[in-house]
What we know:
- By secondary structure, the protein is α+β, with helices and mostly antiparallel strands.
- It folds into 3 domains: about 1-85, no CATH class; about 95-120 and about 145-320, no CATH class; about 330-355.
- The protein has 13 helices and 4 strands.
- The chain is globular and about 80 Å long.
- The two termini are about 45 Å apart.
- About 30% of the residues are buried.
Amino acid sequence: xxxxxxxxxxxxxxxxxxxxxxxxxGDISVPELxxxxxxxxxxxxxxxxxxxxxxxxxxxxxxAIKQAQGDLIEAAFLLRAFRTTLPRFAAxxxxxxxxxxxxxxxxxxxxxxxxxxxxxxxxxxxxRLIDFARAAGFEPPPAAEEEADTAAMPRIHDIxxxxxxxxxxxxxxxxxxxxxxxxxxxxxxRDLRLQSLARGDEGFLLAMGYSTQRGWGGSHPxxxxxxxxxxxxxxxxPELGFAIDxxxxxxxxxxxxxxxxxxxxxxxxxxxxxxxxFGHAERKAMAMSLVDRALRAEELGExxxxxxxxxxxxxxxxxxxxATGFVEHLKLPHYVxxxxxxETIRRMRAEAIKEAAE
Length: 358
């Protein structure tokens, strides 16, 4: 009987896979969506999958989105699973975002900043109205193409730092940790927290960041600077002994500025929350920087009482791949466990009825 059940289960799973393939393709009279179309026209989805999948590979992210029928968490799961099969042959040098080839750069604290505001491609000033003309195949004429600004642009926190108004940069001379190789324990250092947040779920981080603005964290932040553009990635092969450029990637960086009243060891000044994310992902970078600042509460001598200020709560729940596995495993057979629970409830009810009768 057990053998028959197993074979029957296998047959059902095979049929489910076949049905899924048919469902994924949809109406065959409609042209099939190509990965190139996804990569070029659904760029924000591709960027999110790369960030949460923890692998910068636009073509593979587009393929994962197609395979997952647009389910971005499932696509990120596919990408992260593929990532585990790749050999790690080098570590890149720290990127210098001041040297970024900027496509978009804004600040909410300085109107006239060195290098100027660059609005770039953004939905910030669009009307949230569905454009039905696009459904009819009409596309507006493309805007005049502008090249990214390749001039080095100083960061806003560096400008404030010259006046002593911004906290100094942290010491980054030590070797950073790696959450992909070592299990995370608490309290976690900031480098490990930032790694976790960078590949955390955008929706979760958005909710946590929002909570800190609504009183659950007591922050009153300003976007010191938000920039999007391409940066060069360099590695230093041991056999060469010097850095070589292996390509460019698109990054979004957010420096969030927060007021700080000072402590016994530090004067009143501005402090920072930081976000750095693969691709064009402003919402994620901003949410990440809000949460990063909230998680620094104890370090800055502030009371940590809100959910967004709890390292263990935030870091343990921000990973949507882990969360998906834990939630969706409930769909798997739990027959034995449930029968045990059922017998327990029946016994407890019988005892309760007996006691009531006495």
